[in-house]
Write a structure and sequence with these properties.
Distance between the termini: 89 Å
Order of helices and strands: HHHHHHHHH
Shape: elongated
Number of strands: 0
Helix content: over 70%
Structural class: mainly alpha
Length: 234
Amino acid sequence: MSDIFQEVEEDVRRERYEQLWKKYGNYVVAAAVVLVLAVGGYQAWKAYDLNQRQQISDRYQAAQALAEAGKATEAEAAFLELSKDRHTGYATLAKLHLAGAYLAQGKRDPALTLLRELTTNSDPAISNAARLRLAWMEADARPRNEVEAILAPLNVADNPWRFAAAEVLAYMDFKSGSRTQAETDYLKLSQELEAPANLRQRAAAIAQYLKANPAGSTSVTPSAPQAATGSPSK
């Protein structure tokens, strides 16, 4: 008897499944198709996005090669195009290099405009590099207090850019004729163990020169180092 009841129960269950399938089967199939298409679409999008990023990386390297080869006009065009790209990382870096391409051609005003824009960037590496380059550009054209204002976010304790900012101000002391103060500033920089090695060496050389020529002219001036596009290296 138990076998008969079991068979009846299975028939009833089968009939219910068939009714459910007739009622909802199309929805189940549709959902499965949507899932397969979604997974396939996501994989296709990832492949496309990776390909796009690789192309942009190649274009960025090509633009850098133009700049390094001294082809400023071609580099300007290449970086300008990259600066409009939707991949904001490359677009932002391209703007920083675009400012350099402008400067290489003596286009001071567009370079200043672009650097001021980049000082508000949310990436500290970009905004700090822009501030440093902007400060060097304005060091010969603006009063010290205005350049100090540009460098203020860098010139604070524990900021790795503070030494580069101090170098700009030491240069301004030198240019203004405050040679004693400049010597003190450069000597202090040369002894900062946390400062990048090349900056310490440069500062030491200038401090030695100022010490040997305390009353010399300012016709020989320290050259401004090129601002980096990332964090200062040691």
